[in-house]
Amino acid sequence: MVILAEVLRRISYVILIISAGFFLRHLEKTKKQRKLLTFEFTMYIIIQIAFVLFAISLLISIFVN
Prior knowledge:
transmembrane, mainly alpha, elongated
């Protein structure tokens, strides 16, 4: 049961990363067409920070193990 929970958690990570990437791409296209709204700009910044933090945590986990 623990293995199933671990697999589901990793699948959810992949889905979240892919969907955030698509939304970031959508926001970049919107940014080229018009000025982003406050909420859109906030999401744009938060997603970029989340990707950087995810990359840092991935590198740490790779080099620690």
